[in-house]
Amino acid sequence: MKKSEESVLLTHAEKEKAKRAAELVIAEKEKAKRAAELVIANAEKEKQTSVIAIAEEEKAKRVAELVIAEKEKAKRVAELVIANEEKEKRVAELIIDNKEKAKRVAELVLAEKEKAK
Q: What is the pTM of this model?
């Protein structure tokens, strides 16, 4: 083989080597780009997960507030029922007192009639 043929073959081999090196550089850049895209996608997913978690916490807080409000409402209803029962008891006591007074008045009227005879 002649020197010129050897140098052509070397030049061709060097060009192939340079071409392959360039292809590897491009592949590495694409790999790095894809890795960056995955990092960004993961960050977005974590952000969405955080937003969902915050929304769930707010929902749970609102449910707890509604439960507390319902308990307070039930307590107020119970207090009103008790107050109403106490009023009804007082009314019953007043009715009994009035009946006793009416009985006493009737007794006094009878006593006056007896005296008047």
A: 0.54
At which residue do the structure tokens 């006593």 appear? 111
Give the tokens for residue 83: 């107050």
- pLDDT tens readout for residues 13-48: 788 899 999 999 999 999 999 999 999 999 999 999
Half-sphere exposure of 65 (CA within 13 A, CB side): 6
Give the distance, in angstroms, between the CA of residue 43 and the centroid of all CA atoms in the same chain: 24
pLDDT-above-70 percentage for the chain: 91
What letter would DSSP give residue 98?
Answer: H
Q: Which amino acid is at 1?
A: M
For 18, the token pair is 């340079």
> Would you place residue 10 in the very low, low, confident or very high pLDDT band (cuts 50, 70, 90)?
low
